[in-house]
Amino acid sequence: MRTGRSGPKCLRLGVDRLLNKGGIVNRTAILGTGAAVPKKVITNKDLESIVETSDEWIATRTGIKSRHIAEDGETTSTLATEAARRALEMAGVKPEELDMIVVGTTSPDMIMPNTGALVQKNLGASKAFAFDVYAACSGFVYALTIADKFIKESPGKKALAIGSELLSSITDWQDRNTCVLFGDAAGAVLLSGSSDGDRGILSTHLNSDGCLWELLYIPGGGCIYPPSAEMAEKRDYCIRMHGNEVFKHAVRSMADVAREAISANDLKPDDVDLFIPHQANIRIMNAVAERLKISPDRVYMNIERYGNTSSASIPVALDEANRSGRLKPGDLVLLDAFGG
Ligand code: ACO
Q: Which of 20, 195, 267, 281 is deepest in the core (most CB within 10 A)?
C-alpha cells in the first residue's frame, strides 16, 4: 500500500477549560522538541543547472526556494539523533531515561536494522526499545499516534517520536517533476504523561486508502522488484508521482480529517491557534486552510526554506514554532499530514 492519508493531532499547551471538567485527565504531553538539517543548501537557481526548470516555476507552483541536502556522513539516523538530542536537552531528560524510540521514515539508513535502533545506539539509550513506522509523509503523525497510545498506557514512561528523511537518496535527479520538491531533515518530540489536565495531545485520527497507491510510490527495492543493475540504471529506487492527482487527494483528505479531529473534540476551526500542515506545497496548505476557514496568519509555513521533507516536515515546523515563541502556553495546535 502506498498512497494514503493520515490525520491531525491536537495538543493543548495550556489551560483547557473545554475538555477538563473536574476529572483527572491523563494525556501525553510534549516535553521537548528538536530539529536538525544538513548544512548544505541547494537553491532553485542551483537546480536550473541540473534539470530544465526555473526558480520562477518552482517558487510559484510550490512555494519552495531552497532545501537542505545531505553530504557524506549525514544519514537519516544521524539527523534523527541530532534532532532527538535537542529535544532531550530542552526537556532536561537523559537518553538513559528513554523507554521508547519510534522513527517515521521512508528513507532509512538500511532496511535492517531499523533507524530507531541506530538512534538508540547513537544516543546510548540503553533501556529503550526502538522501531520505525513506514508511512511516507504521514510517518511522524503515525509515530506520534503510537507513542501517544504507549504513554497513555504507561504515563510514567518517556518516548521519542521522530520524523527523519534523506529524500535526496531516493530522488530521481533527472526527473524535474519530483527533484525540485524534496529536502532532507529530521524533527523529534519527547513525550511523557501529564495528569495536570492542562496540556497534551487531545486526540489522533488516522486513515488510509491503499487503492490510490499508484499515485505516489517507489517501484523498486522491495520483493516485487528487488535491487538489480537494471533497477539502478532506470533509477527505479526513486519516488514516482502523479503530482496533479496527489494534489487533489491531499487537499480533500487533509481538510476532511482535520474537520474530524476538530469536531471529535467539540471544537471549531476558530479555536485552532496554530495549524501545522505537512509542508508539501504552499498551494495545498493554502487550499486546506481555506476549506477549514483557518486564517493565513494561523498557518505555519516554512516550505520556502526546506522543501518537502516528508515525515520530518511537521516536527521541524513544530520545533521552529516552539523555539521562536510562536507557540504560546494555552495554544491549541492542529497537525495534519498526508503521504504515499
Ligand atoms: N520545472 C518546470 N516545468 C515543470 C517542472 C519543473 N520542475 N515540473 C513539471 N513541469 C511542467 C510539466 O512538465 C508540465 O508541462 P506540460 O504542460 O508541457 O506537460 C507543466 O509543468 C505543468 O505540470 P503540472 O504537473 O500540471 O504542474 P502542477 O501545477 O500540478 O504542479 C506539482 C506540479 C508541484 C508537483 C503539484 O502537482 C504538486 O505539488 N502536487 C503534489 C505533490 C506532493 O505533494 N507530493 C507529496 C508527496 S511526497 C511523499 O509522500 C514522499
A: 281
